[in-house]
UniProtKB/TrEMBL annotation:
SUPFAM superfamilies assigned to the protein according to its UniProt record, in alphabetical order: N5-CAIR mutase (phosphoribosylaminoimidazole carboxylase, PurE)
Domain PurE intervals: 120-249
Descriptive protein name: Nickel pincer cofactor biosynthesis protein LarB
SMART domains, A to Z: AIRC
A Pfam family: AIRC
Amino acid sequence: MDINNLKSLLLDIKEGKVDVDTALEDLKTLPFEDLGYAKVDHHRSIRNGYPEVIYCEGKTDEHIIGIVEKMYEKKSNILGTRAKKETYEKLKKIYPNCEYEELGRIIKIQNKPIENIGKGTIVVVTGGTSDIPVADEAYHTAKFLGNDVERLYDVGVAGIHRLLNNRDILMKARVIIAVAGMEGALPSVVGGLVDVPVIAVPTSVGYGANFNGLSALLTMLNSCASGISVVNIDNGFGAGYLSSMINKL
């Protein structure tokens, strides 16, 4: 139940359209519903502005389906990250409106219109094509949370003219997500060109001495460009979520 549904329920009680006992049935699972293996946080959209997001990696399909079922009953829009295609195929049989973004491994179930809450455009930039799965996780997260989002892929520092030729896209952004592996230099370059927040996402893309993304993470944390924040390695979801929070301010 989100803030709009709660307001609607209270108005229905006030106007006599819903009796108190029926309202109590709707409210009794707030703030969370205990399934034994999970405590589904139906109250989160009222506190934080967005419903709970399901991190699917490490969960069984049965547990994911059980969580989705309870969120679906509340008519929540449902976002699942790091989801396997096999999980999506099982959900699709139960919920025909379920969609899957294969590169970003995102499951989406839209039960009500997504309100565009963003004040501007979020631009997702990658250093290389190998960074796209993480970038797509960020892109679809920010999009699902109600933002205009654009993608600018494969414009890394190895061919910096590709980035400079797209400065017009960067300049119209309100928030930029810069996704890169290897040495992770892209956010520093982008941060030196724009006057908006840059969210840096290190990826685990690279050869042995990149230490599964640690080299990119350390580069981004030590950037001399101002206005850069850094999320964890391969955390496209975290970047998409944070960009949405900034964009709605």
